[in-house]
Structures are given as C-alpha cells and as structure tokens.
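Hi V.,

You were right to ask for the full record rather than a summary. Here it is.
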Amino acid sequence: MHQLAHVPEVKAAPQLLILAEPLLREGLIRLLEPRCRTAVEPENLSGSVQLVIWSAAGNLPLPTLQRELEQLRERWLPAPLLLLLPGDCHYSSEQLLQLPCEGLLQQADPTEIPEAVTTLLAGGRVVELRPLAAELPEPELIGLGPWLLRSGLSQIETEQRRCHHWLQQGCGSFSRLLLHGRLRELAAARRLLLWLWGPISMAFPQPIASTSTPTSTAITLRQRTAEGVWLAIQQRLTAAIHSGVSNGSGQLLALDGLNPEHRRDLLLALISQLDLLITRLRHDQLRGEALEERWLQQQPELRRLSLRSMAGEYVQLPQQGGLLPVAESLSGASELNAIDPDLPLAQPMLAALVQAQPLLVEGRLLAPDEPQALLHLELLIGNWLIRSAELISAEILSCCSTWPELRRYLLRPDLLATRNLERLRNQLNAQQRWGSLFERPVQLYESRRLLYGLYNGTITPQLLTEPRDNELRQLSWSQQLITLSLEARDALAPQLQSLIRRLGDLLVVVLTQVIGRAIGLVGKGILQGMGRTISRG
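Predicted structure:
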C-alpha cells in the first residue's frame, strides 16, 4: 500500500468588506489583495467577515456618522470596523476619538492602510489623526472683563512665543538667563490675570500653551489587553523622551538643572522601574486599597533604583580628598521618601493597567483600550513621571550644593558656578512656597488639578476638573484664609455688580431726565428770546 503524503493545511485569507466610492474602492482592493479576500457587496461574501472598511465622506453630520457606525457594528459583529476619513473633515479630535470603531485613519497614506488592517485583524486598535489648520473662532459679543482677560492672555502668549524663538536660536548664556527670567515673569502675570478675574478663568480649562501648532494623534495598540495598553503607553512616552525633553510648562522645574543626557536617562530609568513594578503588581493580583497601599510603599524604593541607574552604579567622584560612589551617596537621601500631595489617586490608573478595569474619563466609563482612556492614562503616567523626576532632581540639586564635582557630572554647564546654582535653588524654593500657600488652595477650592503631560518631547501643563473636597478640608488655617477670601469675593461680586448697575441707571436718569430737560428748557428760552428780538427789529 502506498503511504499518503502529508499535505499541509492552507489557511484561508481573511475576508474584508469594503464600503467606499468606486475609485477609492478599486485602490483599496489593489492594496489589500492577494493577502486578503475583498468584497464590495454583502451578496458577494463567502463566509464570515473578518474586517469592515468604510470610507465615509467628510461632510456627514456627526450624529449621522455615529449612527451609521453603530449600525455597521451591530450588523457585522464581531468583525472590527476601520473608518477612513478625508483630511478636510470638520470634526474635532475629541469627537473623532469618541467614535465607536476599532480603527480610524484620517487622510491615510497608502502604506498605512495594510499595516492598520494587519493590526486590526490581530485584535489590536489603530488611530491616526492628522493635524488640521486651526479654525478661527466665531465672533461673539463679550463684556469688558472677558475681553481684557483674553487680550492680556493673547499678549502674554505672543511674548512667550517670541522668547522661545530666541532661545532656540542659541543665544549667549547671559541672554538665556534674561529670557528665562522673562518667561517666568510672563507665567506669573498669566496666573495673576486668571486669579483676578475669578470665575471667568473657568472658561479656560486648558492652559494656553506657548505654541498653537496643531499636533497629530497616532495610537497603535497591538493587543486590547492591560499588557497591550501599557506597552503602547510605554512606547509613546519612550519615543517622546528620546526626541528630547523641553520645558513648556511655564514654571521653573528642577529637572531643567540636569544636563540633557542625565535628564533623559532619569526619565527612562523611571519608566523602566515602573514597568517592573506594574509587572509585579499584576502578578500579585492585588485590588482596591491593597493595590494603592502597595503602590505607595514601593515609591521610595522605585525612586532610589531610578536614581542609581541614572547616576551609574560604579561611578565615583572625588570629595574631601577621597572617592565616593555617586549612586550610593545620592540614594541615601531622606527626601526620596516624600509624597507629592498633588499626585492624584493611583488606584484608578493601576486598576486599568493591572486588571484592565474601566476608567472614568470626562463622565464616561471607558475600557482602557479606548483611545480617550488610553490618552488619559498616558497623561496620568506622564504626570507621575515628571513629578517623580522633580523630587529626584531637587535632591540632586541639594547634594550638588555641597559636592562641587557632582555639578560637573550631572548638571548643566552654566550651573557649575555656585551663584547660579544657589539662585536656581532659591527660585525653586520660592516657587514651591508660593504654590503651597496660595496656588494649591485656589486649585483645591476650584476643584482643579494640575497635571504635567509629555507631548512630542515637551512638558505641557493641563488642568483637570475633579472633586477635591477631602484635600480641601485638610488645609491649614493660613491656606483656608485664601479659600475664605475667594468665597467672600464670589459672594460680594453679584451685589457689587447690582450696585454698579443701579448707579449706572441712576446716572442715565440724571443725564436724560434732569440735566437733559434743563438744557432743553434753557435752549427753548434762548430761542424764544431771540425770536422776540428779531420781531421787534
């Protein structure tokens, strides 16, 4: 008997349903065949559909677009949906990120579509949003107060952009000091404007950045699990750090004192240690308060390990006639055990990264793999990254004040001089005291939280509105005086406005009814007298 040869089983190509205009449809078919089987009509399908591609027009109303996407999902479930949009669509980035689809490409290049299809077929998620030209705001009638506020903020933003431009030109050290001082003055003037106008500032939840250039949004999620979400965020933050970290927060940061190489190494070390910590937490299977408690317990050790990795385990520098190991000397500081009070609760972030639990974002409960939830998680992790690096950098600056050789190794060249280093430390201490005594009570009373994000290599501030009543009750009596003054101002403002309005109405009555009528009577008498004189003549 002849033995039958083993024939390997050939896996069928995935079947795609393409819904597009005829010309674009033919182009998509040429891009995806022969790796995929394509169909343009539901009647031509043979078997189940693995992916639905829809090229929608950019002029569809947003409710219509959402309704069509929901109908497609209901009909072809569980097949993922890839939405293709033109570059001239009138939707904002926030609206696009809320669309119910696994893939979204705006003005996609031909090479991006096959890669997106491969990722979606593997169970991932892809979002590519192109930067659009900034739309002009619609003209509106505003009062004198909002107009003065917006005009002042606009002038400050223009001056900040000019200062950043001169800093990028590579000016001298003295000019750089002057420009950095000017930027701090502008930041203080901006905060003063927002504080003076009180509730008007609530119309500006996002701080005005130094540049208004629109940026693109690119998210590629290989797996829609907790591990896949963390891997995508880690890759995005690592790429942003490698591109070079610059300070666009409008505030003085201790991290700016480090030279660029050690600044990058410190941030990368923090991300690496965070990766190990998340892996251990995922293995321990902790939940709720136990997860938050373990996170807080591991923070000091995580900072010490990151500091040792940045400084180098075997680096030794001379001090007082001997050689001291840098990593061991720095990691013994007690300040590394401090807890930043402005850090939000880590439990929601950890529950999403460790257990893939839903996350509350802008009043919506979203899965961690949703684009909005992933960007929010990236903001939370970036804020933890910057604030942890700030604590470590502040301790490094403190040690450098008593260890001159350490300045040459870790700090910028201009901070080698004792005067420059002490001036930087004094400015940081003054900024911290001002923020603790005044800015933090105001933020707590207005239920705002300042977060630092890392976008395209720039540290960018962002204000989130969330309840902070528990923190507000824990303020000292001096800080509570600030909140009481704000409450008194808010209580007296309507009465003061009513008084000014009534004084204005009274002034109008006096001018029109009393003075105006008296002037009219005087003029009438003059005309009558002139008439009698002319008639006699």
